[in-house]
Amino acid sequence: MSAAHEDDYRRRVVCVPETRFLDGTAIEIIAGFAVSAPPLHAIFDFDGTLSLIREGWPDVMIPMLVEILRKTGTDETTEELTSLVTDFVMELTGKQTIYQMMRLVEEVSRRGGKPADPLEYKHQYHNLLMQRIEQRREDLRSAAVSPEDMLVSGSREVLQGLRDRKMQLYLASGTDEAYVKEEVELLGLAQFFGSHIYGAVDDFKSFSKQMVIQRILIENNVDGSRLLGFGDGYVEIDNVKSAGGTAVAVASDESNRSGKPDPWKRDRLIGVGADVVIPDFLDCDALLKFLWNEG
After folding, report:
1. What would the mean pLDDT of 131-145 be, rounded to a whole number?
2. Is the pLDDT of residue 48 over 80?
3. Closest alpha carbon to 67 in 57, 75, 76, 78
4. What is the reported pTM?
5. How far apart, in whole angstroms, are the C-alpha atoms of residue 39 and residue 253?
6. Is residue 242 included in any domain, yes or no?
7. Are residues 285 and 156 in the same domain?
8. CB contact at 8 A, 214 and 4
């Protein structure tokens, strides 16, 4: 299978269409969407879609990148660099981390600096991020906190509901695969995915969410219309729609867990063709009944 690179964000839907809510729920249905056939396979993003372990990662990445650019000797202010970095970090959110570091290399070179390899920057970022989240991971290991405290609300229930419907579940993340597998275990979710857990690797061209989707369809000899995707990043939503599947945007409010959709995520994910928008999985019973045309 040839490598499928992750494209930059490109808005498919210029104007947000009319929407409606399923009665008594926070499930927002985009105008014109109708379920054609019950899905057979479901693919999930991880961070922000199911896991909250890495909540706040931009507060680690953005200052690090700003400091690297500041050391080039640029006369830009910290505020100007922060604005620049925030824009491209958030624009590339949803892709593998290496892509943000590749953009950093371009910005360092543009300012006359001598950049490190993108992979070196990625490892530096991961080391800093682990310092921020290691206590969360340790609290999970020691049972000081419940996995439910580090999950998007209703995550376990929606996974169980899908498994009860005999769905094959897959997880694909832009975070490094070794970390993803460890954190899936810490959250008690490994039983739902089995061996179907995929994440980024240092050879970034050998992995993409699109490649995982292609593998699902080819190996199971199913049409894209039988694929269901969940994610809070544009890559998985765009990939699922490109394959002909149904895309559920999880516009999670990670920091506040307010039960309301994050406006930036909502607009961004509708912009790449999401069929349904939810803030979390608390209404998962109603969502699954809707997707399976059960009344």
Report:
1. 97
2. yes
3. 78
4. 0.91
5. 27
6. yes
7. yes
8. yes
Phi and psi at residue 231, to the nearest 5°: -170, 160
CB 260 within 8 A of CB 279: yes
Which pLDDT belongs to residue 150?
97
Shared domain for 125 and 163, answered yes or no, is no
Measured CA distances, 236 to 19, 79, 227 (Å)? 21, 32, 12
Residue with tokens 């959709």, as numbered in its chain: 261
What are 30's strand-pairing partners? Answer: 19
Mean of per-residue pLDDT scores for the chain? 93
The average pLDDT across 262-266 equals 94
Domain total of the chain: 2
In order, the DSSP letters of 201-249 are: -SSGGG--HHHHHHHHHHHHT--GGGEEEEESSHHHHHHHHHTT-EEEE
Give me the domain span that covers residue 63.
Answer: 58-141
Domain CATH for 174: 3.40.50.1000
Sequence-distant (≥ 6) Cβ neighbours of residue 119 within 8 angstroms:
98, 101, 202
